[in-house]
Design brief:
Elements: E1 7-11, H1 16-27, E2 31-35, H2 47-62, E3 70-74, H3 83-90, E4 94-97, H4 104-109, H5 111-131, E5 136-140, H6 164-183, E6 187-192, E7 195-196, H7 205-214, E8 219-222, E9 227-228, E10 231-232, H8 233-245, E11 252-256, E12 262-263, H9 264-275, E13 280-283, H10 298-304, H11 312-325, H12 327-333
Parallel strand pairs: 1-2, 1-4, 2-3, 4-5, 5-6, 6-11, 7-10, 8-13
Antiparallel strand pairs: 9-12
Helix pairs in contact: 1-8, 5-6, 7-9, 9-11
Length: 435
C-alpha cells in the first residue's frame, strides 16, 4: 500500500495537523480529498484569526497542486448523510480522521457540540467506511487517554482518561476497534502529544507562551515541574501518513510524539530566550489536567521507522520565525499608527500652470497678501517707457501715476490724449493731471 498511489480522504484537512498531513500526502503524489467545515469551535477561537489561518493553509495547499497529484476540497459536515455520495463516487482506499474538537478546553466550553463532532461524526464515518469497503481507517486519538502517567508510558498501559475530551477520545478508540471486530474494517490508532508549530491557533500551551512573550506579557506556567512531550507538527504529520500506509500498522495503536519530556518552566524559559523578552510567572498546577511526561515511541519506530527530527529548541525557533513573518500576527501585534495628514494653507495642486506665480525680479517683489487660494495673479515684467502699460479695472498699479496728457480732458466719455509713443487707454473716469 505504501508505494502505490492511493485515494485518501482527510477529514479536518484544513486544520492545524490536517493541513500538514495533506502536504505530506501531496508530496507523495496521492489523490486527496479534504472534508472540512472550517469550524469556529463554538466561538472560542477568534473568527478573524481562524479566517486568516484557513486562508493561509488553503493557498499553501493550492499552490502545491501539480500534474503528479490530485486534490478536491469539500465543505461538508462529517455528520451529513450526503457524505455517502462522496464515498460512493471516490471509493477511498483510506480515511484519515482528524475532524474533531482539538483539546479539552474547547470541549468543556461546549460539550454538546464536542460530542456531535467527536462521537456522532466518527460513527457516521465508520459506517460509511464499512459500507464502501475502505481499506484503512486511521483514527487520531490523544495521549490524554492515559490520564496521569510517568515517563516512558507505552501503548499497553491502562487508560484512565480524565475530562470530557479525553473520555470522548478513548470512547472513539473503542468504537474503531469494535468496527474491526464486527466488520473487519482495518484501522490504525495514533496518540500524539502537545503538538505545536506554524499555522496553529493561539490557544495551545506553546502558542500562548510565544504570544505572551512577543507582547512582553507574563508567561504563565501552571506547575513548574509539570512535563509535556512537545512534538513539532511536521513530525506528527509524517508519522500519521507513514502509519496509514504501513502494512505493519494494521489494527495497531501507537504513541506519536518526540519522546522527550520537558517541564513547562523549561519550555517557557526557552521561549523567552528565543523571543528576547517575557517574564515567567509560575502558578499552581491546573487540577483539570493530568500529570504527564514523555511517551515511548519504540513501537512506532519498530513498525514504520517513526523517528521525529525536530527537537523543542529548533521547533520553537521555526515557530517564532513564522510569527515574525505572518501578516495577520504582525498587523495585530504591531498595528500601524494612524498617519495624520496636514492640509497646506495654500494648495496649488489643482491650479493650472498658466496661473501659477512666476518669479519676480528682486526690485519688484510681489507682496504675500496678493497670493491667496482665491486670488493668484500673474506677475508682469517691469514697465519701461517704450512699452504700453495697461491698468486693470478697479486695480490701479501701486504708487504709479497715470500717464501725463497734453491737455485737460472732460470726465464725460472723453478720450484721454497721451504721448504718441506710449498711448494708454483707461476705463476709469478719473481726471488726469494737466501737463
Amino acid at each position: 500500500m505504501k508505494n502505490e498511489k492511493k485515494k485518501i480522504l482527510v477529514t479536518g484537512g484544513l486544520g492545524f495537523i490536517g493541513y500538514n498531513v495533506v502536504l505530506r500526502l501531496m508530496n507523495l503524489g496521492h489523490i486527496i480529498s479534504i472534508v472540512d467545515t472550517k469550524t469556529t469551535y463554538g466561538g472560542l477561537i477568534d473568527k478573524e484569526e481562524l479566517d486568516a489561518l484557513h486562508k493561509e493553509r488553503f493557498f499553501s495547499i493550492a499552490s502545491r497542486v501539480t500534474d503528479s497529484n490530485h486534490l478536491n476540497i469539500y465543505t461538508i459536515d462529517i455528520n451529513n448523510p450526503e457524505l455517502d455520495q462522496l464515498f460512493q463516487a471516490e471509493q477511498f482506499d483510506a480515511v484519515i480522521h482528524l475532524a474533531s474538537f482539538p483539546r479539552q478546553k474547547v470541549v468543556n466550553n461546549d460539550p454538546m457540540q464536542g460530542s456531535k463532532a467527536m462521537s456522532e461524526g466518527l460513527l457516521n464515518l465508520l459506517e460509511l467506511s464499512r459500507k464502501h469497503n475502505v481499506g484503512r481507517f486511521t483514527y487520531i486519538s490523544s495521549s490524554m487517554v492515559y490520564g496521569d502517567f510517568i515517563d516512558g508510558v507505552t501503548e499497553e498501559a491502562v487508560c484512565k482518561p480524565q475530562g470530557q475530551y479525553a473520555i470522548m477520545k478513548y470512547a472513539g478508540e473503542l468504537l474503531v476497534k469494535d468496527y474491526t471486530r464486527q466488520y473487519n474494517l482495518d484501522h490504525t490508532i495514533l496518540r500524539p502529544s502537545a503538538v505545536y508549530g506554524p499555522v496553529d491557533v493561539d490557544d495551545r500551551v506553546i502558542s500562548k507562551f510565544m504570544l505572551n512573550a512577543r507582547e512582553n506579557k507574563p508567561i504563565r506556567v501552571f506547575g513548574k515541574m509539570e512535563k509535556l512531550d512537545f512534538t513539532f507538527v511536521s513530525d506528527v504529520a509524517t508519522g500519521i501518513v507513514d502509519a496509514t500506509l504501513s502494512p505493519r500498522a494494521v489494527n495497531e495503536t501507537y504513541n506519536l510524539t518526540r519522546s522527550q519530556g520537558v517541564t513547562l518552566y523549561d519550555a517557557a524559559r526557552m521561549v523567552s530566550q528565543i523571543v528576547g523578552k517575557g517574564n515567567i510567572d509560575v502558578k499552581n498546577r491546573d487540577a483539570n489536567y493530568p500529570t504527564r511526561g514523555k511517551l515511548s515511541i519504540a513501537k512506532a519506530y519498530d513498525h514504520f521507522r517513526f523517528d521525529p527530527a525536530v527537537d523543542l529548541n529548533e521547533g520553537l525557533m521555526m515557530y517564532n520565525h513564522w510569527f515574525e513573518n505572518n501578516e495577520y500576527w504582525q498587523n495585530k501585534l504591531n498595528p500601524k499608527k494612524d498617519v495624520i495628514k496636514v492640509t497646506p494653507v495654500l494648495d496649488l495642486k489643482n491650479v493650472t500652470e498658466e496661473k501659477r506665480v512666476k518669479k519676480i525680479p528682486a526690485k519688484k517683489p510681489v507682496t504675500t497678501s496678493k497670493v491667496t487660494a482665491g486670488n493668484i495673479i500673474k506677475a508682469k515684467p517691469p514697465v519701461t517707457k517704450k512699452e504700453p502699460v495697461k491698468a486693470k479695472a478697479k486695480t490701479p498699479v501701486k504708487k504709479k501715476a497715470p500717464a501725463k496728457a497734453k491737455a485737460p480732458v472732460k470726465t464725460t466719455k472723453t478720450k484721454t490724449t497721451v504721448k504718441k509713443k506710449a498711448p494708454a487707454k483707461t476705463k476709469a473716469k478719473a481726471k488726469p493731471k494737466a501737463k
